[in-house]
Amino acid sequence: MARRKARVADVHEVAAGMPHVTVERGGAGNPVYQVGGKSFVFFRTPRPDAFDPDTGERYDDVIVIWVPSEDDKLALVSDESTPFFTTPHFDGHLSVLVRAGRIGELSHQELTEVIQDAWLSRASNRRATTWLAEHRLT
Predict the structure, then answer these.
(1) How many angstroms separate the CA atoms of 107 and 114, rounded?
(2) How many CA atoms lie within 13 A of 93 on its CB side?
(3) CA–CA distance, 111 with 36 (Å, rounded to integer)
(4) Are the C-beta atoms of residues 33 and 20 closer than 8 Å to each other?
(5) Which of 6, 9, 32, 75 fits a 20 to 30 Å CA distance from 105?
(6) Model pTM score
(7) What Rg value do the Cα atoms of the chain yield, rounded?
(8) What is the secondary structure of 30-67 as a DSSP string?
(9) Residue 30 CB: number of other CB atoms within 10 A?
(10) What are phi and psi of 78, to 5 degrees?
């Protein structure tokens, strides 16, 4: 089976499909996916720290995805074959950024795994353990 490119709709589908997820709305109506009141994926509004280096325009399509550890973050943002990045604003924050316009550089499977890891990093131990057992990943 060919590797299908990820789409923005996949972000919504995978995040919403994880157990015990609620979708809150940010000030601009942007979706914020949470588990147990903790965000794990959210669509960010344009901010001064993420911008086009050529035009200076703020990116209006940034998605923030939590990661389990600083090592995971460094692995994702250091790998030039992925569209993940960070900004100084997110130094010390266990998350990576990706532009919706570049999400197709990931396969559906790669995106799914990153979002599942984000959920696992923010879910309670009980919920994470149950999900892992149900998916035979323990």
Answers:
(1) 11
(2) 15
(3) 22
(4) no
(5) 32
(6) 0.94
(7) 15
(8) -EEEEETTEEEEEEPPP-TTSB-TTT-PBPS-EEEEE-
(9) 14
(10) -85, -20
